[in-house]
Amino acid sequence: MLTVLTWVIAIAFFSPVLWMVLTSFKQESAAASNPPSFFFTPTLDQYRAVIDAGAGSYFVNSLIATGVSTLLVVIMAVPASYALSIRPVKKTQDVLFFFISTRMLPVVAVIMPIYVIAGQLKVLDNIWTLVVLYTSMNLPIAVWMMRSFFQEVPSEVLEAAQMDGAGLLKTLWRVLMPMVAPGLAATALICVIFAWNEFFFALNLTAARSATVPVFLVSQMTSEGLYLAQLSAASVLASLPVVLAGWVAQKQLVRGLSMGAVK
Amino acid sequence: MTSLVDKHQQKVRRETEQRRARGMSSAEGWRRRGPLLPALVFTLIVTQVPFLFTIWYSLQNWNLLNPGGDRFVGLSNYVEIFADSTFRQAAMNSVIFTLGCVFFAMLLGIVFALLLDRSFAGRGVVRTLLITPFLIMPVAGSLLWSVSILNPSYGLLNWLIGLVGISPVDWTSVHPIASILMSLVWQWTPFMMLLVLAGLQAQPKDVLEAAQVDGAGWWRTFISVTLPQLRRYIELGILLGAIYVVNTFDQIYLMTAGGPGTASANLPFYIYQRAFLGFDIGQAAAMGVVVVIATIIIATFALRLIFRSFDVKD
Fold first, then answer.
1. What is d(CA A128, CA A122) in angstroms, rounded to the nearest whole number?
2. How many interface pairs between A and B have CB atoms less than 8 angstroms apart?
3. DSSP character string of B121-143
4. Of B126, B153, B240, the CB nearest to A7
5. Chain B hits for A204, Cβ within 8 Å
6. Which of A249, B156, B180, B291 is the most buried (most CB within 10 A)?
7. Do residue B128 and residue A135 have CB atoms under 8 angstroms apart?
């Protein structure tokens, strides 16, 4: 009984997504019908239309912004969180607090200067501007998360490495990285999700050349009236990478989202 | 006499040792701090420098539509925004969206997590279905809600309520705040559910069994054993949820554009409007500063809470 209820709730809760997927396989006339059409001949026309509309270049931009920023975050966050956990500097709490406080800054509060500075540096509509911003957006979260993973490494392991005369880099690379690899994967996944889905910076700082997938989605809505089925197909394509990654890594996602605070 | 000399020598030796220790600890300190520096310097530059500019802009009368009007006006931008009723309304809406979304998402999240915290056929699939809304790109989710679900002529919701005889509603223009809240709650419930689920699964089983042996019913056990155990997970969910929901922009931009009029604008959206549609940089900057100060005040309390409940080890 409770199981049936759970299934009903789950399907009801999931139904908007299901509806989006269904709509994406319809012809436009069937998509905007009233009453809604539940039975129709599926077609891939909408997906073809989305790709013909030039979705490819937006996906490339999103891939660059997401991939490079995540890489930069990992490169900077691993040593930083290592310093904050295994060999704590003075005022570790202050540094941690500073990092997380930057994440609490409303982005709107810094968008005007960023826009003006980017304009003067001639890097508006430049994908590397987004790379830098997404790196700064995700770095604090990554430092927090990685720190919690490093803290679980037993101190004997480090002492043993030190006895063997391993230097900082060697210890980090050979001894610690294998131990925190799952945590690192979760951290990277969170960074990917936030960067891939980011809309506000992309909307305000990019135009034709470097716009990302969310901007493409919005342009689909406003350009030539409303193509519901095509919009749904574009939404499915845009969401697919993160949805698949999230499905695969459900368990790690919890720890990641709670910044490792909850085990 | 000798004892005095001894004391003096001891003192000198002690001071030398302390100095040496300090010298060593400073070199050692740099070795420790070194790995932290790239991240710290990068974050400082990219996040703090623009904010300093924001403060500077907020003291200027700077409207891009009014070239040459650029001059230092002190705090008058701040005086104006506190007299601006739209700003007050947007602030109020921010509070409504944040509290409303966090509250309902947490409530639903707890219910979903309790339903999932049992073994039953297809549990993995159900969990997967329930977390998906969180993974959908917010822009796609907003479009899905405003276009497919809430649309007055062919939306799914109006068809559903039509089945029980309720006449169609133009959701996003008649109930803009409720519409946005609906999609926000839908998007955030899975996040709360995952956190609460983690908390439920971390519960020591023997305590639950002991409660059952004592003859406590399900509800008693939930209120007096499970809920206190979940407290820190719930606090964390509320804190993290609030940090993100307060910044909500996508849903408002795409579902109602802050409208009708400014009825559903929150602070991020209103500041965006002032800056990028009204070109009023000075005003928008002042609003940004006010929002930051308010956020810092709230966040300080919230962080104190979180540091207490997770006692960060140092």
1. 12
2. 291
3. TTHHHHHHHHHHHHHS-HHHHHH
4. B126
5. 272, 276
6. B180
7. no
